Amino acid sequence: MEQIPPPISPEPTSTPIIDPQIDPIPPHKNRTLMYIAIGVGLIVVIGTVIGGTWAYTQGKKDIQAMVQSQSQQLDDLQKSYNDIRKVLDKVPSTPSLDSADLLDSSINSGLPSEYDDVLGVEEDLGIDQNRKLSEEYKAATKLLDNLKKNNRKIEGLSQSNPVISIFIPQNADLISDTDSFANTSSALLMYLQKVNSFEINSTMVGYQIGMAIQEAVVRSADDASVANLEKKIKEIDSLYEEYKSIDISSIPEDLQTNHSAELASFSEDVEIFNQILLAFQNKNAALLEKTLQSIIIQGQGASNESEVKFKSFWQDNVIINGVTDLSDRWSEYGASVGISE
User: Fold this and answer.
1) Region 187-208: what's the mean pLDDT?
2) Confidence of residue 292 (pLDDT cuts 50, 70, 90)
3) Could you say which of 85, 86, 160, 310 is the most buried, measured as most Cβ atoms within 10 Å of its Cβ?
4) What per-residue confidence (pLDDT) applies to 169?
5) Cα 298 to Cα 58, 95, 265, 290, 311, distances in angstroms
6) Rounded CA gap, 181 and 322, in Å?
């Protein structure tokens, strides 16, 4: 009898083993986390944008203020230079560095007493103009210092605010050129200030020598008057050393050449003054007349020539006139960062 095979039982389906410690995340919770992540991302982005916008806005305001300050300093510097030119225009035929023309005027005019108006004497000698020049030199030097300080602030702002370096036009070349201009101009003004101070001292010494010579003439070259003259002439020697010690390494070559020429001329004048003293000591009238005429003529010519040259210097010097070009460049940069005219 044929056996009937037993029915095939279906294979049991595998039942997943669920770890009771793991709580599966329902689909709706996945979406919630996604939304949270997107929200956090948007907050970060929006915060970055807002922070960046604020940094840009604030940085732009700061750099605009600094650029305007630079432009103002340059405008004031130009005015200071113009004031110097005005002072020079008012200066009469002033004494040369050797003060020989003051020697002439003091010999041929009455000697002032100790009660005379000192300021009046200074005005007659042109020293009041020298003092005005000194004040203008100081004012201009201060403005140049401010230019360099503003440069450092602008550099510091770019370093502390990265947004500025990305979105605001940079001006490294302009800053470098401004530093160079300020350094060169400061060195020039320092030199001119020292020469100006020297001129004040030499003018007064020249005037005092003239009075000492007149006194020696009136007193027939007695011992006291000759000793006083010798004392004053020794001050000329000190002035020569003072002029020789002025540092000229940082000024343009043409000024260095001119300074050396003036120094050589001054050396010749020192020798003439020593000859004048020798003439009084030996009571040599012929030598005295010769040396006095020599230094008076030489001094008057040098004085007029020096005055013309100095006025031309302030009109034509490349360093001084460089303020105009630099001012224009800062104005252009100001326009690039949103400063309206």
Assistant:
1) 92
2) confident
3) 310
4) 76
5) 64, 11, 10, 12, 20
6) 8
Token digits of residue 167:
């979105």
Alpha-helical (H) ranges within 91-171 are: 100-108, 118-125, 127-160, 162-167
User: What is the distance between the alpha carbons of residues 318 and 253, in angstroms, rounded to a whole number?
Assistant: 12
The Cα-based distances of 329 to 145, 273, 322 in angstroms read 19, 52, 11
Length of the chain: 341
pLDDT in tens, 118-131: 445 666 677 888 99
Distance CA 206, CA 9 (A): 137
**Among 38-47, 234-243, 327-336, whose mean pLDDT is lowest?**
38-47
3-state helix, strand, coil in the chain (%, to 5): 80, 0, 20
For residue 38, which amino acid is it? I
| Structural contact between residues 81 and 88, judged by C-beta atoms closer than 8 angstroms | no
- Token readout for 226 is 């000759």
Phi, psi of 19 (to 5 degrees): -75, 120
Determine the pLDDT at residue 23: 54
Under 8 Å between Cβ of 340 and 71: no
Name which residue leads in pLDDT, 161 or 220.
220
Task: Measure the CA–CA gap between 74 and 112, rounded to whole angstroms.
Answer: 45
Phi-psi region of 7 (alpha: psi -120 to 50; beta: other; left: phi over 0): beta
**How far is it, in rounded angstroms, from Cα 268 to Cα 295?**
10
